[in-house]
């Protein structure tokens, strides 16, 4: 499983610290290893069709007991329906091995699925369901027909009452009509109840099977997760259930432990290989709804891998998270009065306080306006996005301005530089979005997501890059970044976008920054009712 580099690497300096896997620029050794894996994949034509649909691979540069360097390779999930291939490290636990408890458990669950399908397709079940629907429809029709008749009779009685007919007689007729309606209600209720009872008897059997399927599936998953015994650099072992118990999700998600990064580290620890550097890269088409670029490097996922890798890296000298090493410049005040202050938020500064400890606008605002009442942050910009941010100095102003943002009375313009040339000079992007739970904070396009709408206008094309203005009509997280990069959007990521773009970057300095800037904000002052326009040019 250990591969020696095909090229001379004697001139390459070894990294002093191991890769921080959640935000990194691949070390030159990792890049070379990835290139060799890609060449190997080209030599396996029988895999090409599956890989073309999209798969994550990983490389781990290691040092053996003699101090010599080599690399390991892995794929996420399985390949061609198998967990074992000679070139790649094995899985942490092979659930696909013949006779394994997981395969037996899956077979038992499949048998329950077949029984459920047979019960639901049986003549008795279908007949009972159709009889119930027919009874409900018949009941509704009979009641509707009688109510229409009773309405006509009441109208006739009202006419007769006006003509002076005996009131007692009219009351008696009304009582008879009401009694007739009640008799019919009881009759149709009994008819529907009888059909419902027959259906419920058969449906209860199906529901019991489904509950049994769910119980067995959950128990099988937890048994499987307990078999994933994860090592760290100190030689300590914890299973997946233990690693995810302290997390908000409590239990491991499906596929936990099957990504490339955990496989690589587990194999290295088991074989006394010292991890030196690591990288994961995507091959093939982008998954539906997501943005992945063929050959691009990506950080380890948060949902499945962060609890695992946090444990596995214990005992290694690891790079600090570069996003926590940022010291952004101070905001610049663009407009201010006694109620509102509008600033130019620098790239790298958080809008609100976060766990990383990086300086935030919220912190800056409370330092500069200690007398302010209530929350000051009205809306937010991503840490990587620079530009216009509006703050409120009092509670009433904050509430009024938030309402303007919610009701879309605030006009926003963003300036961006795209890594390519877009097809149309003006247009509207309408793609619903939701959080990619396993890869926070990444977002994905999804029909069941929240609607996100962006208008755009191309300003210029500069040396193969597009300068563009965005006018978001909604304010979803990463909306402009995803709408730019997604194939159903502009299919052209923003320059410097390390999440949806082609490359990782080391930091948020001017040379590597995300080229997205909030350049114009127009709103109505909640107290003076004056229309305020604030503009701020991008520095890229």
Give an account of the 3D structure.
This protein is α+β, with helices and mostly antiparallel strands and 540 residues long. The chain has 3 domains: 28-92 and 229-319, no CATH class; 104-224; 324-535, 2-Layer Sandwich (Pseudouridine synthase), CATH 3.30.2350.10. Helices cover 36% and strands 19% of the residues. The protein has helices at 28-42, 48-52, 101-121, 123-162, 167-227, 240-244, 260-270, 302-312, 361-368, 395-406, 479-485, and strands spanning 55-63, 69-75, 229-231, 237-239, 274-283, 297-298, 332-336, 340-345, 386-392, 411-418, 426-430, 433-435, 443-445, 453-462, 465-472, 516-524, 531-535. It is flat and about 115 Å long. The two termini are 46 Å apart.
């Amino acid at each position: 499983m250990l591969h020696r580099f095909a090229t001379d690497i004697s001139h390459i300096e070894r990294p002093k610290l191991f890769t921080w896997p959640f935000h990194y620029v691949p070390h030159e050794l990792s890049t070379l290893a990835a290139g060799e894996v890609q060449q190997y994949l080209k030599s396996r034509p029988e895999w090409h069709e599956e890989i073309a649909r999209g798969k994550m691979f990983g490389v781990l540069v290691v040092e053996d007991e003699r101090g010599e360097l080599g690399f390991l390779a892995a794929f996420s999930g399985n390949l061609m329906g198998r967990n074992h291939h000679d070139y790649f490290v094995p899985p942490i636990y092979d659930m696909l091995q013949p006779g394994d408890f997981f395969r037996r458990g899956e077979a038992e669950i499949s048998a329950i699925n077949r029984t459920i399908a047979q019960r639901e397709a049986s003549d008795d079940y279908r007949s009972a369901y159709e009889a119930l629907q027919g009874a409900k429809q018949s009941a509704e029709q009979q009641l509707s027909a009688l109510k229409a008749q009773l309405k006509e009779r009441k109208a006739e009685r009202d006419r007769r009452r006006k003509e002076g007919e005996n009131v007692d007689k009219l009351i008696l007729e009304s009582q008879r009509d009401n009694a007739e309606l009640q008799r019919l209600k009881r009759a149709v209720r009994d008819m529907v109840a009888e059909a419902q009872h027959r259906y419920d008897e058969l449906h209860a059997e199906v529901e019991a099977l489904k509950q049994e399927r769910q119980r067995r599936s959950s128990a099988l998953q937890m048994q499987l997760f307990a078999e994933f015994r994860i090592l760290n650099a100190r030689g300590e072992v914890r299973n997946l259930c233990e690693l995810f118990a302290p997390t908000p999700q409590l239990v491991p998600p499906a596929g936990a432990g099957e990504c490339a990064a955990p496989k690589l580290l587990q194999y290295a620890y088991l074989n006394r290989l010292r991890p030196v550097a690591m990288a994961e890269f995507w091959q093939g088409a982008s998954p539906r709804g997501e943005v992945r670029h063929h050959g691009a490097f990506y950080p380890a996922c948060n949902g499945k891998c962060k609890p695992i890798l946090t444990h596995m890296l214990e005992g290694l000298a690891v790079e600090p998270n570069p996003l926590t090493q940022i010291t952004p410049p101070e905001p610049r005040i663009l407009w201010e009065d006694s109620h509102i202050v509008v600033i130019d938020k620098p790239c790298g500064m958080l809008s609100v306080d976060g766990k990383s400890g990086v300086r935030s606008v919220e912190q800056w605002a409370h330092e500069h306006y200690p007398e302010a009442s209530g929350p000051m942050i009205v809306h937010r910009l991503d840490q990587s996005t620079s530009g216009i941010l509006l703050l409120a100095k009092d509670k009433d102003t904050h509430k009024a301005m938030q309402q303007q943002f919610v009701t879309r009375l605030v006009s926003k313009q963003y300036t961006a530089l795209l890594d390519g040339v877009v097809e149309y000079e003006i247009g509207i992007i309408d793609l619903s979005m939701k959080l990619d739970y396993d890869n926070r904070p990444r977002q994905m396009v999804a029909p069941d997501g929240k609607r996100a709408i962006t208008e755009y206008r191309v300003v210029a094309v500069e040396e193969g890059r597009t300068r563009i203005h965005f006018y978001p009509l909604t304010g979803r997280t990463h909306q402009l970044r995803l709408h730019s990069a997604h194939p159903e959007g502009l299919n052209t990521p923003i320059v410097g976008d390390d999440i949806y773009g082609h490359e990782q970057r080391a930091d948020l300095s001017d040379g590597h920054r995300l080229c997205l800037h909030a350049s114009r904000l127009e709103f109505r002052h909640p107290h003076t009712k004056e229309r305020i326009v604030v503009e701020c040019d991008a520095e890229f």
